[in-house]
Amino acid sequence: MIESIKEKILDIHAIVSNRLNSNEKSFSSEKSIVFDFAWQFSVKYQSLIENIDFETSLFNSFSDGTFLDLFLDLKENGVTYKVGIEFKFPYKKKSNTGHTEARQKIINDIKRVTWLVKEDKIDLGVFICFTNEGNYINEGNYSKAQSFITHHNKEYKKEEELPSNEKYKEKVTCINDLKFEWSNIVIKNDKYIISDNKFAVLKPILIYKMDQQPHDNSAKYYDFVFERRFGAMYNMLTQNNLSKIKNIALNGKILDFGAGTGRISIPLATDSYEVTAIDCSSEMLEELRRKAKDRNLNIETHLKLTDINTKDFDLAIAIFTVLAYLKTQPELKGVFELVYSLLKPGGFFMFDLESRAGYDQICRIKNGIVHNSAEDYVTVNFQDNNSNLCDYSEKVKGTLPSGEVFNYSESFVIKFWTIDEVRLIFNQIGFTEIEKFTFANADYLILKKP
Q1: pLDDT of residue 375
Q2: Rounded to whole angstroms, how far apart are CA atoms 55 and 52?
Q3: Beta bridge partners of 257
Q4: Contact predicate 375/396, CB 8 Å
Q5: Domain segments of the chain: what residues?
């Protein structure tokens, strides 16, 4: 998994950062940092390294040279990942000369590794920077290269074009959201100051292609579309779900697996539950975090169940056809095993399974009121009767209250699970079924961990 490789890069970055700022190692140049990073990586993760190379020629023609600072071939669990890293180490100078050029080079290095990822020359691009010069971390009134900005908390959004000019002319758009987050800094007189005798450390900027997940395309519009598609039933469903949850757990810690944009997580957090939200779509989680921030709510979010370390949840939920996104028995069993391990003894797990009638109802949604009868179109087609796999697709066009016109299309595969199939799995794991009920064409089950 690329996530594991990212963690190892961050681990070595932390080691090098500590060596730099504890005076354990004296770094005289950018190259000395590159070599130390490579050495620390080879010491700690030697078994992963298939190839390591410096000044690798990967750019046929690109501003600021054809060479990449550090290239790693890393093999983990039988998969080889190509990692490209660019470094910058701007020193403080006696005058203000050189700041403009360094800012441009920083942005250009990010463009370079982004381009390599887009061209599939590397799987993970990394930009690393240390500086003892405050000009890079503060928002200034620049007379030159005004768009090349690197100050603390500066963001470049996914699909936003990174700055370019006549010297650094390549047009490159962001693959991921990028943010300049500097550490070892303090605020003094409304200005960021680097801590005494320290180097400001930029949180490594990681660039990689993310696998497209269901609802990535629709996340921004998901609430608007579903509220209008299902009307009053959508709110009734939410209130019914919340009522059942509160009957099971009057308070405590709740794990919301398949949380989406926070239909359940947000009201639970509002009612003082401690909520952890999981969703495989980073775009859906981004909407959830935005809504939580607007309401001053603290909701922990993760892309995977395996990212969670605590094992003391009072209740886990997976509702609104969440389990339908698990298409194989090993996947389904793995989720039940993880949920079981994350619950405290006596904890509960509530989930739903959509009925055939529910899928048939979705298939008939061709007349929604998102925009007009022709432009809200959903289909669900069973691939065959044995697998119960379904091809789900939707095309939507609409207008938000702000006046923004939007359109998106999505297609992915979901699975129709029978109660008997699921029962066989959770009985093997050790869950006890304590309740089953039906609401809105879905069967709900509540399980208990002994």
Answers
A1: 65
A2: 10
A3: 278
A4: yes
A5: 2-208, 219-448
Series of mean pLDDT values for 10-residue runs along the chain (450 residues): 84 94 81 96 95 87 83 86 94 61 90 91 94 84 78 88 88 90 89 86 91 86 88 90 94 96 97 96 91 95 87 96 92 96 97 78 49 63 72 85 88 90 96 94 95
Cβ neighbours for 388, distance < 8 A, ≥ 6 positions apart: 382, 415, 416, 417, 418
Q: Are 156 and 174 in contact (CB under 8 A)?
A: yes
Q: Report which residue type is found at 308.
A: I
Distance CA 111, CA 114 (A): 5
- Beta bridge pairs of residue 73: 51, 82
pLDDT of 306 = 85
Look at residue 210 in the predicted model and tell me its pLDDT: 74
Determine the CATH number of domain 219-448. Answer: 3.40.50.150
Q: pTM (2 decimals)?
A: 0.59
| 447 CB neighbour count, 10 Å cutoff | 25
Report the sign of the C-alpha dihedral through residues 364, 366, 371, 373, in that order. negative
Burial (Cβ within 10 Å: 0-12, 13-18, ≥19) of residue 321: buried
CA distances (Å), 216 to each of 213, 260, 282, in order?
A: 6, 10, 7
Nearest residue to 150 via CA among 190, 112, 197, 200: 200
Amino acid at 99: H
What is the torsional sign of CA 244, 248, 250, 255?
negative
